[in-house]
Design brief:
Number of strands: 11
Structural class: mainly beta
Strand content: over 45%
Number of helices: 0
Helix content: under 10%
Largest sheet: 7 strands, mixed
Shape: elongated
Length: about 120
């Protein structure tokens, strides 16, 4: 019913920049919030940043001042610009969207397939 397709990521040296983006498609009435999580092997998936349709942002302290999240509500797209990357930012980045399929419907979590971000020292 709902698909999240991610793009971007890759390999960069420490101090560099990368961006990832995600587009949601399917039977969507509303998405709130939409954003990014990341996971390294052996650890729990953790919040990077999420953004509500109002523009309100939640983000991890570790990325504040370096990562910028943005959202295009009309196209159900969210992007993450990652600057001044550090080796500890290396992870698989997952797009997440809390989606209501109809007006008044419950919001349900959907995940993208993940995209690798690797930061070399």
């Amino acid at each position: 019913q709902v698909q999240l397709v991610e793009s971007g990521g890759g390999l960069v040296q420490a101090g560099g920049s990368l961006s990832v983006s995600c587009t949601a498609s399917g039977n969507i009435f509303s998405i709130n919030p939409m954003g990014w999580y990341r996971q390294v092997p052996g650890k729990q998936r953790e919040l990077v940043a999420t953004i509500f349709s109002s523009g309100r942002i939640n983000s991890a302290d570790s990325v504040k001042g370096r990562f910028v999240i943005s959202r295009d509500n009309a196209n159900n797209t969210v992007a993450l610009q990652m600057n001044n990357l550090k080796p500890e930012d290396t992870a698989v980045y997952y797009c997440n969207a809390a989606v209501a399929l109809y007006n008044g419907g419950a919001f349900r979590n959907y995940w993208g397939q993940g995209t690798q971000v690797t930061v070399s020292s």
